[in-house]
Write a structure and sequence with these properties.
The structure holds two protein chains of two kinds. Chain A is built from nine helices and two strands. Chain A is mostly helical. In chain A, helix 3 packs antiparallel against helix 7 and helix 6 (110-120) packs antiparallel against helix 7. The longest helix of chain B is centred in the N-terminal third of the chain and has 30 residues, at 35-64. Chain B is globular and about 60 Å long. Classes of the chains: A mainly alpha, B mainly alpha. At the A-B interface, helix 2, helix 4 and helix 9 of A face helix 2, helix 4, helix 7 and helix 9 of B.
Amino acid sequence: MKKDLKNISSQALWHNNPALVQLLGLCPLLAVSSSVVNAVGLALATIMVLVCSNLLVSLIRHQVTDAIRLPAFVLIIAGFVTCVELLLQAFAYSLYLSIGIFIPLIVTNCAILGRAVSFAAKNTPLISAFDGLMTGLGFGLVLLALGAVRELIGTGALFANMELLLPFTENWELSILPGYPGFLLALLPPGAFLFMGLLLALKNLIDKQVAEKDLKDIESELGSTATHTQN
Amino acid sequence: MSAIIILLISAILVNNFVLVQFLGLCPFMGSSNKIETAIGMSAATTFVLTLASMVSYLVYQYLLIPLDIAWLRTIAFIVVIAALVNFTEILMLKTSPLLHKVLGIFLPLITTNCAVLGVALLNINAGNSFVESAFYGFGAALGFSLVLILFAALREKLNLADIPAPFQGASIAMITAALMSLAFMGFTGLV
């Protein structure tokens, strides 16, 4: 059981990350990552929808027949997205305006439907909810990383306007590079594509180095056992 | 008439759906490996997108507004789109099996293309009329097709290029898209 949970987490957060490896949900990822506050807002909304939809899909998995599986799942997701939309309108209206149509477009984030079909429809409710949480986190962390890089390079500051999401975080803005003239390209659409490309390259680089290190460890282990047997 | 032309140019070039508004990126990345695939996807998307923006306008104005349930629009639109995609598939199968053979495999993918739902929502937000909605949907689809086919052509060339190992695959595709997006930023202020 514990091993299962660990496996789900490592798959969702790194090896099979919905955003970095499967390239799912690219539209919100690139569109809403121009600042940390937007990124966190959308990440929380996506996590909420993913956990709820995975839980509900898993609860009704024995009642739903194959023929109506996809429409049923899409409707469940659309229902939760509408809930999140209404919640944001009620409690964080200016953030709702700044994220714009990407809140309702969570419905078409293939990562969510993908998890519902490939995981929640086959597993028990609790573990499905956990899988939803981890997949959401994997997506959210990439969103946050991209948002932080773009905001830092674009404006030289971090966490601007965080009070839109959480009222107690006024004055959280950090000017990391005072007197920085700003680099508009990072905030414009081309910057999103560019930094996403660099992020993907960075992941490939890390994966390659880890693989090389593992190979070396195995080789040295094999080498030491070989010398032992010779002695 | 000139308003319609401006609307079309704005949807195709200035506010290009893929490169400026980030809608429809999944098919943009997923079906751009070959030019033939890109053309098939473009044709299927153009058809469904134009139809979907018209039908969702009608559903919103004559069903959701009178019943005072406009907040259910996300659910209503996704149902409309899924039904339309299904309907298109059946229609195509009955009237032109050849077309169905060519475009059929792309149709199910369109339901999760966020450009389709995006156009429906943007039309509502902008307060477009029925004719404007139809042309906006058509323009969005043309912009999507233009960029998708151009990108597929670039990727066919990229396959032959010598790319540093960490950048291979999706990474270099993203950076290529960044350069295309940069070029499309040049249209800002055209309309």
